Amino acid sequence: MPSDPSRMCELLVGLDDVNVGAVDRDETGWLRITVSCRQPALVCESCGAQRRLKDRSAVELVDLPAFGQPARLLWCKRRWKGCCGSGSTTEVEDRIAPAGHSMTTRAARWATRQVGQHRRSVSSVAAELGCDWHTVNRAVIAYGQALLDADIDRVGPVDAVGLDETLFVRRGRFRCKQWATSIVDVDTGQLIDLVPARTAVKVENWFKAQPTQWCRWIRYGVLDLSGPYRKVFNSIVLE
Q1: Could you tell me the CA-to-CA distances from 223 to 124, 167, 212 in Å, in that order?
Q2: Predicted confidence pLDDT, tens digits, the chain (239 residues)
Q3: CA-derived radius of gyration, the chain
Q4: Residue among 191, 188, 171 at smallest CA distance from 179
Q5: How far apart are CA 38 and CA 29, in angstroms?
Q6: What HEC string does the chain produce?
Q7: In angstroms, rounded to a whole number, what is the distance separating the alpha carbons of residues 111 and 15?
């Protein structure tokens, strides 16, 4: 069993190849863990020489709660001086967080499972993480879409497809209606996807993005008397 304090901190933080610089609790009672990567300096792709450290900047990331308390990971990212006339380069490590994200990779994956698999609301997950609704929602969209794109067998062959419009939200000062089209497997009742519109063009584009064989499996369409939806079936599904 490890007895070295530094190693024990690393095990608690649970990230590979990082140094834990500090662990503190702020005035709100949240934990703040400062880490830095210990990979060697980047090598210039042009000349092969090692880049020199230019500076460091701390990036605060929403992380998983620790011991019942919201936590923030402060990642001291290194920026390397350019070589051979090239510009400076900032450290990238997707195992901690992808560039431009405000949540750690593990927290984003956890949030996506909570919302997608366990059917929790975005607001409840945000409250547990101690962040705003938009931070969680952006993570769920980014990681959830990647999962959907990778799971090509999620739906499988569909014999009958249903299309229907839903008033999804009212936006803006004048509460303008924003419609969405639900695409459903009629036999199983499974929601296949949502298209953020109810126009023929948008829904046609969705079908065009699907594999040709998948569209050929469809034999029936269930829809109301909507002209745009009838156009979709005539031009895409029944062609």
Answers
A1: 35, 16, 21
A2: 666 777 777 777 888 788 888 889 888 888 999 998 888 777 766 666 777 777 888 899 999 998 888 999 999 998 887 677 667 778 888 889 988 899 999 999 999 999 988 989 999 999 999 999 999 999 998 888 777 666 656 678 888 988 988 887 787 787 888 888 999 999 888 888 888 888 888 888 988 888 888 888 888 888 877 788 888 887 766 55
A3: 24
A4: 171
A5: 29
A6: CCCCHHHHHHHHHCCCCEEEEEEEECCCCCEEEEEEECCCCCECCCCCCECCEEEEEEEEEEEEEECCEEEEEEEEEEEECCCCCCCCEECCECCCECCCCCECHHHHHHHHHHHHCCCCCHHHHHHHHCCCHHHHHHHHHHHHHHHHHHCCCCCCCCCEEEEEEEEEEEECCCCEEEEEEEEEECCCCEEEEEECCCCHHHHHHHHHCCCHHHHHHCCEEECCCCHHHHHHHHHHHCC
A7: 18
Query: Which structure tokens are listed for 107?
Result: 């927290």
Nearest to 74 by CA among 8, 6, 19: 19
Q: Do 222 and 162 contact (CB within 8 A), yes or no?
A: yes
Burial class (CB in 10 A: 0-12, 13-18, 19+), 6: exposed
Q: Which two tokens stand for residue 163?
A: 């299309």
Q: In the chain, how long is the greatest CA-to-CA distance?
A: 72
